[in-house]
Amino acid sequence: MTDSLSLAAEPAGEQDVLARSWERAWRALGLAQPGSDAFEALMRAYAEPQRHYHSQQHLREALALLETVLPTCRSPGEVELALWYHDAIYDPKAKDNEARSAAWAARVLREQGASDEVISRVEALILATEHRAQPSDPDARLLVDVDLGILAAAPHRFAQYEQQVRAEYAWVPSFVYDFKRREVLCSFLSRPGIYATDHFRALFETRARANLEQALR
């Protein structure tokens, strides 16, 4: 991983990232991998037509970034599975996407025999991606930083990201969207650090701030 995210890989490579990550997450949890229907249901969800940014592309990029820091996680299986499910439900008009995504993950984990403790931790990790505040849990901080990796993307990818987010809110009038989007971008810039971990702060902070300032201009 360099100082910015790259565009998605070729299709074969993309599938390798997905398959490798899915298998690794369940293995790290010490649980039997669910049937292919669980994986396919997620793929269908991430391919829904209302998604332009919160799509398979985002999932692949985030998983590839997480892969570079998995050895530093306290519970890598929980973090990786939480990343898989963090946008499993995505309705741009809803306010409970993360909660419903967490419930989906909990249901699948329960079916595979996960303990209540594991299920609770995965749910908490997913809810941390609401980005309402920087979490205190080390694994949650790492997960949130991975989810925000797009803010430090190379300029062409960041511009694409901005267009994708706008497409997801195509139903919002421009003057309303521009005001709300500016609020979101400014909220990140106003933080002492956009990234919660030392690793990603050193790697991404400068580029992310440059991207956000450019977007505001």
UniProtKB/TrEMBL annotation:
Organism: Diaphorobacter aerolatus
Keywords: Receptor
SUPFAM superfamilies in alphabetical order: HD-domain/PDEase-like (SSF109604)
Stored InterPro entries: HD_phosphohydro
Record-given protein name: N-methyl-D-aspartate receptor NMDAR2C subunit
Domain of life, source organism: Bacteria
